[in-house]
Amino acid sequence: MRTDANDDLTDFSDVWSLAIEGSGTGIWDRCLVTDKIRYSPSWFAILGYDDLPSSNHIEVSYSRVHPDDLAFVRRQLEDHFDGRTLVYEVEHRLRTKDGSYKWVLSRGRIIARAPDGKPLRMAGTTVDISRTRDLAIQLQEQTEALTAAHRLAKLGIWNWDLNAECFRFSPETAEMHGRPDISAISVEQMQAMFHPHDLAKAFAVFRHAIVEQVPVTLEYRIRHSNGGEIHMLTHAEPVRGPDGRTALVRGTTQDITSFRRIEAALRESEDHHRHMVELHPQIPWTAGPDGGVLEAGPQWYALTGMTPATTIPNGWVNAVHADDRAWVAQAWTQVVHSAGRLDIEFRVHSASGSSLWMRSRAAPRIGTNGEVIRWYGTLENVTEQRLAQESLRYAAEHDVLTGTLNRGALFTEINLLLAQRPGLPPPVLLCLDL
Q: Same domain for 235 and 316?
């Protein structure tokens, strides 16, 4: 090796082989006349060999190539021999000493030809790319997984290049907008996509992110290419340029149209249910498996003057008329224990101070294990029906003119008295016709 400082530094002929050997690059030299090929020690080291002859016939080399790659390798060599490629370059697998395969990158070129152009000699290098290829495969798999996640979550990526004054879309973002063939648009084109009612507010938020250099979150609507409206949820952050000023705004966009539609439908359903409950003459209520009331319709509170705090779970019984309270509580307890159905009438003190007759009906919801999950019931004001029944009963038993019991009621009372005197002599009845 040269050590003279004045040696010609342009001549590397005495160090190039050492440098290549030290880099882990294998060297090969093939004679196309004899089809013999020789290898450097570093070439064998790639495959884990240290006991093979330095040269062999090309068919031996082909036997080391993975069967699935052999035809491709041969085709690439033929293309180079015939002058269709300037350089032979191919990635393929080679069998190692332990029988496994490694991915390598082989490069080479014709370095000698006969006067008629027939190739005579070829030289090249082989590099182990197994680790690089594994990393590339992992990166590709992760990229595909991330892309799939974005697609399934309806999540896209975008950025606003302030210097180029354009928006750039990922394929997912472009698809969301209904414009899959667009990857970049001007600011004016982007603004035209916004719903008119959301444009000023959205860009005010973007400008805040640019000026204050803070991340932002916003929701807005855009016009889909089919004419519909799409609700977007965007998270964005500014990116500083070399001068410290914001050069780029990047972010993610998610299509949340389906969520907003579900919310709207749920609000509509809740409004519908609330109006139905408020307008319906019956008061709905629910109770837990133990019989404790969980909720009651708003009419209950208007009727009794009670509050949720004084009603739930068992305070409702205080609104029951004192004469009915004990037996009503007992009836409800028995139904809860038997998981049967409730259908009773009792009096309730109203907020105005009067007593009202209420009919309460309830049925349990039974789970798959046979146990009560929840009780569903209704309360109905039946005061008018009760008064009508009392009026009919009174008219049937009393004289209209005098208000005294009539003949039918008289004989009913007599029969009751007689039934209470078994075995006694019959009484005497004196009738005075006034």
A: no
Domain range for residue 157? 153-260
Give yes or no for a contact between 383 and 350, defined as CB atoms under 8 angstroms apart.
no
pLDDT at 12 over 60: no
Report how far residue 45's alpha carbon sits from residue 273's, in angstroms, rounded to the nearest whole number.
Answer: 79
First-to-last C-alpha distance (Å) of the chain: 157
Nearest CA among 159, 146, 125 for reference residue 19: 125
pLDDT tens sequence across 16-65: 666 666 667 899 999 999 999 999 888 999 999 888 888 999 999 999 99
The answer to whether residue 341 scores a pLDDT higher than 50 is yes
Do 173 and 253 belong together in one domain? yes
Greater confidence (335 vs 407) lies with: 335
pLDDT for the residue numbered 16: 62
Q: Is 390 helix (H, G, I), strand (E, B) or coil?
A: helix
Instruction: Enter the pTM of the model.
Output: 0.42
**Residue 234 bridge partners (DSSP):** 218, 253
Q: How many domains does the chain have?
A: 4
Q: Are 372 and 393 part of one and the same domain?
A: no
Residue 373 maps to which CATH number? 3.30.450.20
- Tell me the C-alpha distance between 58 and 66, whole Å: 15
* Secondary structure of residue 284 in the 3-state scheme: strand
| Separation CA 176–CA 165 (nearest Å) | 22
Cα of 279 vs its chain's centroid, Å = 37
In a domain? residue 134: no
Query: Does the residue 104 lie in any domain?
Result: yes
DSSP-H helix ranges across 119-256: 130-152, 171-176, 187-193, 196-212
Q: Which residues lie below 8 Å from residue 129, measured CB to CB, with a gap of 6+?
A: 91, 103, 104, 105
Same domain assignment for residues 117 and 174: no
Q: Is the pLDDT of residue 81 over 50?
A: yes
pLDDT in tens, 246-281: 999 999 888 888 888 888 777 877 776 666 555 567
d(CA 283, CA 74): 87
